[in-house]
Amino acid sequence: MTAALAALQPPLRAISRSTAETEVWAELRAEAEAALIEEPLYAGIIQATILDQRSLAQALAYRLAHRLGDGDLARLSMRDLCLSAFEADPEAGAHAVRDLVAIRERDPTCRRYLDPFLFYKGFAALEAYRVGHWLWHQGRATLALHVQSRISEVFGCDIHPAARIGSGVFIDHATGVVIGETTVVADDVSILQSVTLGGNGKESGDRHPKIARGVLLSVGAKVLGNVRVGEGAKIGAAAVVLSDVPAHTTVAGVPARVVSRLRPDEEPAQSMDQSFGFGDGI
């Protein structure tokens, strides 16, 4: 974990961390086997993507390559690239597991791991970003930017490979999400569609937001500049945040202002409750 990411979060909580990779992989395979019977027309894809693979990392590399491979970088090359990243990063498997578990815990439409693994753009974009992030730190900026470009083209989600994103992160829908180069996102954050974590002008250097653990970024929220959003805060839908947000508060409006206080034990990223609190109106 980088120093910048560690500074945004206290010691890790137990939530979702007791779920081992072997447990998720076993359940994912069981769901895949059941889906073969449920939908024979899709059986070939399920078999090749999951049941023919020997590990979660291999299956994820295969799926990402199937979706991101193109004329510039064929699927086989993309698969090898993804697998190299996952095998080189000892935290990659744990991140993918926590991201999958986060979706299942927070998305009421998700009833099994199979669905986000095969179909959810947010999960695919996040795990593909992790490949690009590894490439970036290997000094392979050209390939990292290619992966970023393909994520944007295929999933409608633009994440710079230099951004630092923790685990247990839920990117819901993904469409229109933009995360800038020097952004830091801690663990257990939920990000909804059309969220921007961007700069505020043409300044250089460290110029993007720092999002602490457990934050909920509601639909269309914009956090601009090198500002800090404190632990367990809630950013209201369509809010424009231009200054620091205190921990355990709800902010809303343009520009965003504190509209309610949250209890320290509330977890907006877990509940996914986008209400503002007192004064929500009709």
Automatic annotation (TrEMBL):
Keywords: Acyltransferase, Amino-acid biosynthesis, Transferase
Stored SUPFAM superfamilies: Trimeric LpxA-like enzymes
NCBIfam families in alphabetical order: cysE (TIGR01172), EPS_EpsC (NF041874)
InterPro entries, per the entry: LbH_SAT (IPR045304), Ser_AcTrfase_N (IPR010493), Ser_AcTrfase_N_sf (IPR042122), Ser_O-AcTrfase (IPR005881), Serine_acetyltransferase (IPR053376), Trimer_LpxA-like_sf (IPR011004)
Molecular function via GO: serine O-acetyltransferase activity
Domain Serine acetyltransferase N-terminal: 24-128
UniProt name for this protein: Serine acetyltransferase
Tree of life domain: Bacteria
Transferase as UniProt keyword: yes
Coiled-coil residues: none
